[in-house]
Amino acid sequence: MDPDLLAAAAAASPNLAATAADPEAVAGWISGLDSAEKDGLLLRVAFGESIVVQAELLRRVRGATPVEPEVVGARTVADLFDGAARHRAERERVKAAVRKRELARQEVERARERERRLRGLARVGEQAWDRVEALAETGRAASYDEAAELLADLRDLAVRDGRVDEFDCRVAGLHERHARRPALRRRLADPSITGRDC
Q: Most CB atoms closer than 10 Å: which of 3, 8, 47, 109?
């Protein structure tokens, strides 16, 4: 069944929390759940299913003990569908916000990782260029790919440090020294590496 429709129905239903057993008994029952089940319930709450999760938990706590619900006003099917649509929209909004925060967190982490790599390159200095030359000499496609990745990082470092002209001259030198390696030259022509001629 549509969880949004269930949530809409539960929203106008009596407050089951008021009819639940002793709070200590509820707390004891919840503490007996395994962590995977608790995580699953919390995730559902995070994605807007709090009312459904609450009803489900209280029903499980009460077990077979019947509860006399208070009488609520009549609702039409249209009311339920409207409520389900509102619940769905809110759930999607919350889900999008969670996703947006996660993407922002990942972007920050990528930026931190990139900065760590650039600091590492700055520390090794000339050894990074020696590594590029060694990779270029191998004549293997995988080595060319690795050289291109390293050069892209070296370009970012040059941009950061205001040394793009020096970088472009060094790449131009690579083109000249490896003129007979078309596969390498294709990689060196990538826009993330080549800026302009020296």
A: 8
